[in-house]
């Protein structure tokens, strides 16, 4: 059968998931919203499963009636988006383009916004990603339509933004998937946002109506209510409410977090489930986490390794085939956790398949990691081999056709997340020393090429603009702390402190307590110049600061601000409306607030670092994956008595274990000590007992 110009097969109909296009993408029925099917061909990354992040248009009934009247058969979620462009842009398939049918894209700049204001032009912001399938489709069908291009040239300033290159813009429009289309007044105040692929006729009708509203003086920007500080500042109670929100998204039938047809790997949700098993004594969540990882394993590429981005149809076996750097990092980290907790070889083998993919396809000769690999093979002649067909081939068959495009941009946030994951993987399997080598090279490159003189890191090494992003600082900071934990090298901790100090100086809003998404952008205008206070990135920064604080020696009388700033940030973004808008993506916030309220314990390995016995103890300590444990190293006699042989000490704020010398017995002995200290289900002890603001005792005090 056919809808418009698109022909559908029946493969998916036989599976009960609706029609499918020739490229394997499913098409939702008119009941898409009711059924939870992703709409409008958006490259959702991922859907938050939450109405609060849906159409902003519902606030304006006239716009809603207008768009409802324009609804055409909906296309399912697939992931693809065009690159940043300046001037005339060819369709992303690579074929020739008629100049009259080309959109004159301009870059995000003050000149673009000034022109819109001076000439009274409507602003259109098109947010895309290089891996996004429907971004390519919209280029080839909609923006290549001469009627659309002519209307945009005459009445609009059309700005294209690469979501991976601009984390701040991506955060602003993430709720609408890629391609996202933002419409703003000539003074850059928001009018409406469109989700995903728009067909030529539908898009043309929307553009014409916008032009008419502008001509008759009815095009007005909407006013968004500012976020408010939460009434309850108690983090333990905030945690309880946030956990309840996340729990509501767990789907035992389709396995994993999320109540829509999209099945997306949420690494922080899985890690939090492991944490709460230990902290709250709720073993059911460990089983749910492992079940989710088992289902997620269906997204592993059986030939090249690496994890596809997500699956559709309410199952884990109908993937969208793009491979995203941050998805690899999350999968690597959670597979490592599963192996450390269970000892089952299948988890470490799956983790190694992620590492193999990173090394073979995303690793730059400089040591950095690339951003993504496309789902489809798009040839220079404009033809496309859909991912569903391409990834069904063996290695020889794939390479005979060519290799899908790899976005070779190397961004600080992606590299930080991969370094962090590689270091976690090494902690779980210290025999995989090559993974630590990859992490060290990538870290050295980040520090050499991305570090600014003010201590912040640039998103791209060659980014000479003034805007710096919170997401980069948090990701690189967490990576530096994890590298310090697994290597004991003080330079990583020193760099982490420098980065934390710079982030607090330049990105922390002391008035609200929250971090802003970016430093001021002199190129932006209107609402786009007002920085957001993103929940997830504040949570990531809080985890960095808390992790850093736990590694520092507070016994020298020097009070550090890191933990207090972290908790202030978590409170500042705990506005119930903000948390509700996160949907299932609240998992990152939940993991951070769990980190903030749990009581830590320090596992310190002392001894000559060149002594094999010291290394064996340290490796055993690293392999003990725990929500509480902070692993550190110290020379003999610095914090604990020098007994003449390597030893490990496990200390809380109030007590220390006897020295432990047998690596094989370390975890069992330490677990008994923690059980006596905390008892089962005491994950909220730190704040519930009024301990907030206290710092770890001096090492000498802990050893008494």
Plain-language structure description:
The chain is of the alpha+beta class and 704 residues long. Among the domains are: 1-224, Glutaredoxin; 601-703, Glutaredoxin, CATH 3.40.30. It has a 4-stranded mixed β-sheet. The relative contact order is 0.10. The model is unreliable at 1-40, 50-99 and 681-704 (pLDDT under 50).
Name some characteristics of this structure.
704 residues, alpha+beta, Glutaredoxin, 4-stranded mixed β-sheet, 3-stranded antiparallel β-sheet, 27 helices, 44% helix, globular, disordered C terminus
Put the structure in a nutshell.
The protein is α+β, with helices and mostly antiparallel strands and 704 residues long. Helices cover 44% and strands 9% of the residues. Among the domains are: 1-224, Glutaredoxin (3-Layer(aba) Sandwich); 601-703, Glutaredoxin (3-Layer(aba) Sandwich).
Query: What oligomeric state is this?
Result: single chain
Number of helices: 27
Based on CA atoms alone, the radius of gyration comes out at: 26 Å
CATH domain class name of the domain at 1-224: Alpha Beta
Query: Uncertain segments of ≥5 residues (pLDDT<50)?
Result: 1-40, 50-99, 681-704
In the CATH hierarchy, what is the superfamily of the domain at 1-224? Glutaredoxin
The fraction of residues assigned to DSSP E strands is 5-15%
The CATH topology name of the domain at 1-224 reads Glutaredoxin
What characterizes the major β-sheet? 4 strands, mixed
Total DSSP E strands: 18
The first-to-last residue Cα distance is 78 Å
Largest sheet: spatial strand order: 6-5-7-8
Basic shape: globular
* SS-derived structural category: alpha+beta
* Arithmetic mean pLDDT: 84
């Amino acid at each position: 059968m056919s809808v418009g110009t698109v022909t559908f097969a029946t493969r998916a109909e036989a599976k009960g998931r609706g029609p499918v296009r020739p490229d394997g993408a499913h098409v939702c029925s008119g009941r898409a919203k009711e059924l939870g099917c992703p709409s409008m061909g958006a490259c959702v990354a991922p859907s938050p499963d939450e109405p609060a992040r849906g159409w902003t248009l519902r606030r304006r009934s006239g716009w809603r009636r207008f768009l409802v009247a324009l609804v055409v058969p909906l296309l399912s979620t697939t992931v693809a988006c065009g690159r940043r462009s300046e001037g005339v842009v060819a369709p992303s398939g690579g074929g020739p383009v008629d100049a009259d049918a080309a959109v004159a894209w301009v870059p995000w700049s003050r000149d673009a916004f000034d022109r819109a204001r001076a000439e009274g032009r409507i602003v259109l912001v098109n947010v895309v990603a290089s891996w996004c399938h429907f971004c390519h489709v919209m280029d080839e069908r909609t923006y290549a339509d001469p009627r659309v291009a002519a209307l945009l040239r005459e009445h609009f300033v059309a700005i294209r933004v690469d979501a991976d290159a601009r984390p701040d813009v991506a955060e602003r429009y993430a709720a609408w998937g890629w391609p996202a289309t933002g419409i703003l007044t000539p003074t850059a105040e928001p009018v409406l946002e469109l989700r995903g692929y728009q067909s030529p006729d539908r898009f043309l009708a929307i553009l014409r109506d916008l032009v008419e509203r502008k001509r008759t003086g009815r095009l007005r920007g909407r006013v968004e209510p500012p976020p408010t500080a939460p009434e309850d500042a108690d983090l333990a109670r905030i945690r309880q409410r946030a956990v309840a929100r996340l729990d509501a998204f767990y789907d035992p039938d389709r396995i994993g977090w999320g109540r829509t047809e999209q099945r997306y790997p949420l690494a922080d949700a899985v890690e939090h489930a492991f944490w709460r098993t230990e902290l709250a004594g709720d073993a059911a969540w460990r089983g749910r986490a492992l079940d989710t990882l088992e289902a997620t394993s269906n997204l592993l590429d059986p030939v090249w390794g690496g994890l596809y981005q997500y699956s559709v149809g309410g199952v884990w076996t109908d993937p969208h085939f793009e491979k995203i750097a941050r998805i690899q990092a999350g999968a690597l980290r959670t597979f490592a956790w599963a192996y450390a907790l269970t000892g089952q070889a299948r988890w470490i083998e799956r983790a190694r398949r992620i590492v193999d993919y990173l090394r073979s396809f995303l690793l730059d000769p400089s040591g950095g990691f690339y951003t993504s690999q496309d789902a489809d093979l798009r040839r220079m002649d404009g033809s496309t081999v859909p991912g569903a067909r391409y990834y069904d081939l063996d290695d020889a068959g794939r390479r005979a056709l060519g290799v899908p495009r790899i976005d070779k941009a190397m961004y600080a946030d992606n590299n930080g997340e991969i370094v962090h994951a590689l270091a976690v993987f090494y902690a779980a399997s210290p025999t995989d020393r090559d993974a630590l080598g990859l992490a060290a090279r990538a870290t050295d490159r980040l520090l050499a090429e991305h570090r600014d003189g003010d201590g912040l890191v640039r998103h791209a090494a060659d980014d000479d603009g003034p805007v710096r992003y919170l997401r980069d600082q948090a990701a690189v900071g967490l990576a530096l702390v994890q590298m310090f934990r697994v290597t004991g090298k003080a330079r990583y901790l020193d760099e982490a402190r420098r980065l934390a100090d710079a982030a607090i100086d330049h990105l922390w809003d002391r008035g609200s307590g929250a971090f802003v998404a970016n430093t001021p952008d002199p190129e932006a205008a209107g609402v786009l110049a007002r920085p957001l206070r993103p929940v997830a990135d504040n949570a990531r920064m809080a985890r960095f600061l808390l992790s850093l604080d736990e590694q520092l020696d507070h016994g020298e009388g020097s009070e550090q601000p890191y933990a207090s700033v972290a908790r202030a940030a978590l409170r500042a973004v705990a506005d119930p409306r903000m948390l509700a808008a996160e949907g299932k993506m609240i998992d990152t916030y939940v993991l951070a607030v769990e980190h903030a309220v749990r009581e830590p314990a320090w596992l310190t390995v002392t001894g000559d670092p060149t002594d094999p016995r010291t290394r064996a103890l340290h490796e055993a300590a690293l392999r003990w994956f725990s929500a509480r444990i902070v692993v550190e190293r110290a020379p003999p006699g610095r914090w604990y008595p020098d007994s003449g042989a390597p030893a490990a000490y496990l200390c809380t704020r109030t007590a220390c274990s006897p020295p432990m010398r047998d690596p094989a017995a370390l975890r069992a002995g330490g677990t008994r000590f923690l059980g006596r200290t905390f008892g089962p289900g005491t994950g909220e002890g730190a704040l519930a007992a009024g301990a907030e603001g206290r710092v770890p005792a001096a090492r000498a005090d802990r050893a008494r």
